[in-house]
Write a structure and sequence with these properties.
Organism: Cereibacter sphaeroides (Rhodobacter sphaeroides)
Oligomer: single chain
Number of domains: 1
InterPro entries: AdoCbi_amidolase, CbiZ
Shape: globular
CATH topology: L-amino peptidase D-ALA esterase/amidase
Protein name: Adenosylcobinamide amidohydrolase
Largest sheet: 8 strands, mixed
CATH class: Alpha Beta
Strand content: 35-45%
Helix content: 25-40%
Number of helices: 3
Radius of gyration: 17 Å
Structural class: alpha+beta
Number of strands: 12
Length: about 220
């Protein structure tokens, strides 16, 4: 469902063909048609207050002939990408995720960002043909599954248990159609939730293991 090519600092996810993609990505956000979704790895030191991320990313993608793709940024090493698939009633979904929690937040209680940056970026695809409203519902299921997986990781902040990061991005791709629903009671919702939980759960566990290892070396 998703063909992945890693050539750092790029991670290119190729879809089976042109699909309708819904996201708040920094490059080509909203509802667009695309056949690729791209991650661009950046260093923490690049992401200062004066960094115009959207303009820079657009120029970088144009230089790689990727201007028509949906584009996301991450400071998480792209070697740590995770692809999971799930199915329900014969309907398949897939999730490609990079997970960094250095920029974590507990929803409803902001922290002042420190130097440590990180984000969760997801591409979710589902075989269902959905209306625009149903695609919005499907995106909400992906976000819910992301949140559940981060909560399960158990990262505790001064403001509470982490639920995500301040710069998360989710893109959901499907074919347009007459499907009206994609909630938790539907096969599409079940498959999306399972795929996202698998990919984000693994990524969160690995990030937590790395954090504990770094703390042990520092101690």
């Amino acid at each position: 469902m998703i063909e992945v090519a890693l050539e750092r600092p790029w991670l290119v996810a190729r879809l089976p063909g042109p699909m309708r993609v819904l996201s708040w990505a920094p490059h080509r956000p909203g509802l667009v048609v695309a056949d690729r979704v791209v991650w661009r790895e950046v260093r923490d030191v690049d992401l200062g207050p004066g960094f115009d991320a959207e303009r820079w990313l657009a120029a970088e993608m144009a230089g790689r002939d990727l201007g028509a793709a949906v584009g996301m940024l991450t400071s998480r090493t792209l070697d740590r990408h995770h692809l999971a698939e799930a199915s329900a009633e014969g309907l398949r979904a897939a999730c490609l995720a990079t997970v960094g929690l250095g920029n974590a937040e507990a929803v409803g209680r902001r922290l002042v960002p420190e130097r440590a940056l990180g984000t969760i970026n997801l591409l979710v695809t589902v075989e269902a043909e959905l209306s625009e409203a149903a695609q919005l519902e499907a995106l909400s299921i992906a976000v819910e599954a992301r949140t559940a997986s981060v909560l399960e990781a158990g990262l505790v902040l001064p403001t509470g248990r982490a639920t995500g990061t301040g710069t998360d991005c989710v893109a959901l791709a499907c074919h347009p159609g007459a499907g009206r629903y994609a909630g938790l009671h539907t096969a599409a919702g079940e498959a999306i939730g399972a795929a996202v939980c698998a990919a984000v759960g693994l990524g969160s566990r690995i990030w937590m293991q790395e954090r504990r290892a770094q703390a042990g070396r520092a101690g």
